[in-house]
Amino acid sequence: MLSRLKRLAVRTLPPPVTESLRDVYWRLGGYRRRSYSQHGEDLLLADLLTDQLRADAGLGRTYVDVGCNHPVRGSNTYLLYRRGWRGVAIDADPRLVRKFCRHRRGDLAICAAVGRPRKAHFVRYSRTGFSRVVDVPGPAPAIADAWPVQTSP
After folding, report:
1. Cα–Cα dist 107/38, whole Å
2. How far apart are alpha carbons 71 and 79 in whole angstroms?
3. pLDDT tens, 74-89?
4. What does the DSSP 8-state code read for residue 33?
5. pLDDT tens per residue across span 16-63
6. Are 105 and 123 within 8 A, CB to CB?
7. In 3-state terms, what secondary structure has residue 65?
8. 3-state secondary structure 63-85
9. Torsions phi, psi of 140, nearest 5?
10. CB 114 within 8 A of CB 90
11. Cα(60)–Cα(54) distance, integer angstroms
12. Could you give the CA distance from residue 96 to residue 100 in angstroms, rounded to a whole number?
């Protein structure tokens, strides 16, 4: 339907009007490619890796996503996944790892904290979707959800 309207507009409206419509369409994000990451990092990655794959046909299509978070929303690797890539997704939040297992069956999802080996706490901020690993010498901090973890190098 939209393509029919565009063709009709180009045929019937004078060029200055169609140019103005194109400008409005561009500003509203009509030509924007679909990004799943927070700030378009996946588009940049996909462009860089696509160019690299053209240069070296033997390069594998595999990624490692440490701190992967949600399998789709805010994901730096979901665009690559949709393009046939597969990889390893690592997060310390068991809820998100279970979501990965359900929604991205081609990936290997691992529930782990990654960093220098130490005892720490994994802290999940419930409303923001953010989380982190913090060094805490004593009991878990009294913020959001927190539980002890052992990080893996």
Report:
1. 21
2. 10
3. 899 999 898 888 999 9
4. P
5. 676 666 655 555 555 556 788 888 888 888 888 776 666 555 566 889
6. no
7. strand
8. EEEECCCCCCCCCCCHHHHHCCC
9. -60, 145
10. yes
11. 12
12. 6
